[in-house]
Amino acid sequence: MPGGKLTNAIDGIPAGPQALDVLRAGLNFLLVTLLFLCPGTDEHGLKIQTTAAAAGTLPQHFCDRVSVEFQELFTQSGVSYTDFIRTTEPRHRRAVEHFWATLQDRGWLYLANYEGWYCTAEECFLAASQVTERPDSQGCRHMVSLESGHQVHWTKEENYMFRLSEFQEPLLRWLQESRLTITPEPFYQLVVQWLKQDLPDLSVSRDRNRLQWGIPVPGDSIQTIYVWVDALVNYLTVVGYPDDHRNWWPAACHIVGKDILKFHAIYWPALLIAAGLDPPEQIFVHSHWTVQGQKMSKSLGNVIDPKACFQRYTVDGFRYFLLKQGVPEHDCDYYDEKVIKLLNSELAGVLGGLLNRCTAPSLNPSGTYPPFSEACFPRDAGTQNVSGLRKASAEDYRLVSSVKELPLQVSRYFERFQIYKALESIVDCARQTNGFIQRHKPWKLSREDPAQRQWQDTILHIALECLRVYGLLLQPVIPATADKLLSRLGVGPAERSLKNLTFLSRYHDEECPFEGRKLGPDTGLLFPRLEKPKARSHGGP
Ligand SMILES: *[C@@H]1O[C@H](CO)[C@@H](O)[C@H](O)[C@H]1NC(C)=O
Ligand SMILES: *[C@@H]1O[C@H](CO)[C@@H](O)[C@H](O)[C@H]1NC(C)=O
């Protein structure tokens, strides 16, 4: 199942505390083919230069510290990756210099006097229509960016310009080839709209006097390469550009936040085409987390620290919450009660409850994977009930067919990065399985009566098979919990691959390797219920 590639792609971790969000590229994953996952930190630019100066430290030291924080966060959250790219690495500088020289050789760059409103926070020039005058808290009037509200300054300097205006048509053609180039769909539409508006040339360097923290323009050391041109090339650096990137490029999927869509969906593909390379195959865009309806910000003091959440909800619990509630199309709202409610209901309740029922010593005294009986649950729902042993109802057949279809459905959702839908279909099946048990009340059947015992065993066999499939499918999302579940079912490490998703083979007249096998040891609740948070003081009345 190609969905396996997502084993490590957890995204949507809220921007971390303090300085973490300064390095905006922390969540820009690069997913090249099925096997290459690369997050990284984008470390150059005026914003870093200013922030480091304000902290009384050198930009390099500042970046070293923050980049490590990101890497630690990945390790802590159980996200592994193929490579981690820092834009201050020598291999990256080489790639950027080569990329720049290629653009220059092909005639896409020229020097020009440039003036306009510059927004340091966004690291870009803004058009007159993108700025407005607004008073600050002291009543002083400033020009600010309409989109971000950050202050802008009138800036005049000689810069290298990239002939972006010539790429309107090529970019529209690229997007028309496939609607799946930019997903989800609303973001595709947004980019098409942008492209139908004016597309001026792009300033791609800064005066060295103003910006020292960056890669100098090759052959012109009084200019520094624009941080976005520098940063975007990271996707090529990690696949070996300029020497052997052709093994990977352009089989790439960029996973980006909606705030940096323009850079990835307009500037980057144009730069690539200009340099004689193919644009990325896919750009997957995600929205942001708000906190109780507000934007997360340091000044509001409402930033959610993922490390604290791992402590409070466990790593698996928090991963599950983010991936189940994180819908890429629109912003999602975070609050503690919501996490607790979701985890208690789905992990502790639906999944943990189901496991408890199927392994309870009162129902399963031998602690084994009990045998399945074809007489109780014949394959053909239409055959006559000759034996009188037949128990399965139409709803039961529907359950079996839902769970059989589940892996394919989940893999389709995973391929489209719709993890929340994949999880919803797993939970939905688990709810149906609980309903199946509830319907047949196996605890009311007597083990003394052979026919009843046969049916009781069959009910448990089916429920355990369902749980095994859910456990296998949940491994990428909640690895520790899935491991606990599968271990409890006695499923060995070599039986947990996507090839082992065959469901209820006895029903299909095949051997079931688990039938009659001893269950694994009882290691406690699958996911302990979380307590409601204690009322926290907010410092106000
Ligand atoms: C099959 O027959 C037995 C005995 O007559 C009956 O108890 C049982 O409900 C029947 N099963 C179904 C699914 O109709
Ligand atoms: C699990 O998959 C492996 C690898 O494909 C296979 O060798 C093994 O027989 C499978 N085991 C079960 C129980 O399905």
From TrEMBL:
Task: Show where the Methionyl/Leucyl tRNA synthetase domain sits.
Answer: 35-358
Q: What is its EC number?
A: 6.1.1.10
Q: Name one GO biological process term.
A: methionyl-tRNA aminoacylation
Gene Ontology molecular functions: ATP binding; methionine-tRNA ligase activity
Where is it mainly found?
mitochondrion
According to UniProt, the reaction catalysed is:
tRNA(Met) + L-methionine + ATP = L-methionyl-tRNA(Met) + AMP + diphosphate
Give me the Gene Ontology terms describing cellular component. Answer: mitochondrial matrix
Q: List the InterPro entries.
A: Anticodon_Met, Met-tRNA_synth, Met-tRNA_synth_2, Methionyl/Leucyl_tRNA_Synth, MetRS_core, Rossmann-like_a/b/a_fold, tRNAsynth_Ia_anticodon-bd
Methionyl-tRNA synthetase anticodon-binding domain location, by residue?
393-491
Name its cellular compartments: Mitochondrion matrix
- Keyword line: Aminoacyl-tRNA synthetase, ATP-binding, Ligase, Mitochondrion, Nucleotide-binding, Protein biosynthesis, Transit peptide
Pfam families, alphabetized: Anticodon_3 (PF19303), tRNA-synt_1g (PF09334)
UniProt record similarity statement: Belongs to the class-I aminoacyl-tRNA synthetase family.
NCBIfam families in the cross-refs? metG (TIGR00398)
Q: What is this protein called?
A: Methionine--tRNA ligase, mitochondrial
Q: Name the source organism.
A: Eublepharis macularius (Leopard gecko)
